## 1
Amino acid sequence: MLIDPFGRTITYLRISVTDRCNLRCVYCMPPEGVPWQPHEAIMRYEEIVQVVRAAAAEGIREVRLTGGEPLVRKDLHDLVRMIVAIPGVEDVSLTTNGILLAGQVERLAAAGLHRVNISLDTLDAEQFRRITRGGELEKVWQGIAAAETQGISPIKLNMVVLRGVNDDEIERMASLTLEHAWQVRFIELMPIKNQAPWGPGFPAPEEMFFPMGEVRMRLEAMGLQPTAPGIGSGPAEDFQLPGAKGIIGFINPLSKAFCQRCNRLRLTADGHLRPCLLSDGEIPLLPVLRRGEDILPLIRQAVAAKPLGHELDQQHVPVGRCMMQIGG
């Protein structure tokens, strides 16, 4: 078992398979973009599998594939198939923007993908283009429909709530759960190298933070009630509207930090183990792996380096990478 200095058992590994993305979401990437890692710096699938195999032998049970946008990487279903076959791995899931999902979900499901999270910050096509800097909302709906057809469940829709941008859609987004067995999750904006102006038409970044307590108060008028936790060991607090088929979740890393329950490590696309999303501390793993040396000490080092919690209240914010480079 992997147990950190504060007694938390680490069972969850989030893996960024690429730093590239087919969207340019305003809270995820700076307006000027970011330099891509060269091809040789990105972990090969076989190397990712080596890391998962070593981690699973020590107690990692859940694996989530992220990016960038993971579906821009060729033949991702092959990686899913390899990870699913590793002894000890019980759950393999995917976080995606959904743009390419319709064309790949059949192969992903056949490979053993269990669950999918889809970023969906607005239900308005024009607003979607603004937030993603050019994305087509209809392609996301096609991806959601295709995932349902393949029996992927649960489908989770993630909305980062931005004051003055999409907070007028909170009730509409929550209402999706009335007719669909989806999990709609509202998420607080995290200050990860996104505090410079986002461009014309957007408020100042520091003005857009919308605490989950306010979202919950808005939805209580619709009869919101607590419910049993959903599938997966994520940080969401789960609720449900009367008669709804789906679940509503609140993820509040700033206003109500859940660090005491953190059970995860992150592996960046260029092979760094990151003990905490909201801290710049990283442990380079890829050079050791490519020299054929034992990586288990580095995995244990990353677990030992996990902080008690983030220090955003002390204005200690990550500055080394933006969200899409981390694989949040």
Note: DSSP finds ten helices and twelve strands in the chain.
## 2
Amino acid sequence: MKLKHIFRRLFKSPTFTAITILTLAIGIGANSAIFAVVEGVMLKPLPYSNAEQLVDLDHSAPGVNLQSAGTAPFLNFTYRDESKTFQDVGMWQPDTDTLTGLAEPEEIQTMDVTDGVLPILGVQPILGRLFNRQDDLPTSPETVVITYGMWRTKFGGDPSVIGRRILLNGRAREVIGVLPEKFRFLDRKPALFIPMRIDRSKTILGNFSFHGIGRLKPGVTLAQASADIERMIPISLHAFPPFPGYSEKMFEEAHLGAALKPLKQSVLGDIGNVLWVLMGTVGMVLLIACANVANLMLVRAQGREHELAIRAALGAGWREIARELMLESITLGVLGGILGLGLALGALRLLMMLAPANLPRLDEVSLDAYGLFFTFAISLFAGVLF
């Protein structure tokens, strides 16, 4: 019955109620939308099995003023042979290739990978298989693994696609696997994956043009893995010949070292700092909204002074009156939260349409159960605050 009376009193002042709900909705909606982005981009783990074990396998070379040199084939081969801390390591490099034979010639985004990269991420194909060591040899037949999107759009979801050949840059490659629909390769969107097929017998020191990825063994820390890398770098410098015109001493003087970081940190880059600042800014917007509503409530309370005096004269205690005013405020906060939720959903849809290039993990952003709970919590907070 109290809620019925509260709604009746609110609807007797439609202008006040509408302005109050809209003011709160803007503050709550902005916070809900930004929270959904922060949660999806920063708080959720990467969508891979035991993602905390994944690292960006980078190197520094302070001797030549390089803080991020990437990795190279001679290091990748050494780490696979000698590592005591990694389950496996791999290299990847984005590329662009021309697809022909299916329709009109088309330029597509591809990803060159060593055979360990997809297994490191823990992905299981829905059809066929992933690359193995044999596929990554330069003498083996050329193969390709395609994404779910390409399978649906170019092959109509045909299960018999395994074994078919496609032409990339005029060269035939056999399709050996199809990746799951929800699989995402870091923050990239390649249509297919191609094995690098690097010839170990022709590998030399240098060629730092690749990204590295590794999966740590259970219980291994980043510091332990870095120490393991430092141990293996001298081994690699003696195991492969230098680039023509260079010497082994030049590579030693570059002081190659480990620059490992969690893979998630590598994907996010510096966007985390921006999002936290933005979260704080919209939090201030909510506080300003609550301050404005508090002023409106004070003005309204002065207009209800006669009504409250009559209720007090009829025996209502100050606790009962305060409780009803608080319940009225919380009701306004919840109504503002419901409208704010709609505004947040609209803002997130607009964000998806705009798809800013500097915002990673956009596919992970949504108003899930945590987002709904956050919205409900700040709605109650706003109601109590003002």
Note: The two ends are 24 Å apart (CA to CA).
